[in-house]
Please model this.
Amino acid sequence: MNDNSAQLQNVLARARAEIGKVIIGQAEVIDLALIAIFTGNHALVEGVPGVAKTLLVRTLARTLGCSFARIQFTPDLMPSDITGTNVFNLQHNEFTLIRGPVFTDFLLADEINRAPAKTQSALLQAMQERLVTIDRDTHQLSSNFTVFATQNPIEYEGTYPLPEAQKDRFMLKIVMSCPSREEEFSLAKRMLGQDAPETTLARGEVQTVIPGEELAALRQQLMRITVRDELVAYLMDIVRATREHESILVGAGPRATQSLLLASRAYAALAGRDFVTPDDVKTMATPVLEHRLILRPEFEIEGVSIREVIERILQQMVVPR
Model:
């Protein structure tokens, strides 16, 4: 491994360690969040209340030297509440831009499915192009702009499901489950003392491992991770198989192929390798594809899950050597 790859691996390892001071367990979740950030993409985070979704994003921002903003999505939220608006300044007799929370590095879109489609769509241009248009003027967002949108998987009353076009703009779906018994016991013990996760973050015990402005250079180092042509064909065939499977009504599009390729390369970097293996592709297939697929109603009635379908597709594929 060359010096550049070693630097990337060092930063990723230190980031994991610092985040682990606050987030108990959830190693896979942390890895997926880092993959989204280091590939310059966005993540859909799903989990019941209280599993530290907000705390995770705040800790990521502190660790990677980035700014953080949070939007609580509600049915009456307006697009201008996200992007900002021009306000007339009587003293200077001109309009002044009041920037919205979208002008940040890491944006937590909390319960994004509680806002109507018009408000959800205010994020589309920002997510795709890192640009925001306000009153016909276009503004550049941070190169580190990353959206972490949360959803509650249980409570759907009064929600507006995300359109397929918007789901496709999220590279990954990160599922945050409840901690194990041992992890929850450790959390309970910490809450009795001065080591509660929120307190640890507030006291500044989480160190910044890299300035935010250096993230772009580290992203370029991912280009050095080798991906053989056979592996590119393998992961492309996995995505194409979702469009033909008997139980899937809507399969994954070409953007899913791109996301799976980038995610597999980043996962290899997390594992300390400078090359991608078939196991990297298999590991990332479910987080990348799950939220993009729609099952046929008859298979939903039978209790078939999307994860089961993805697993069957992976088992049927010929693995390159």
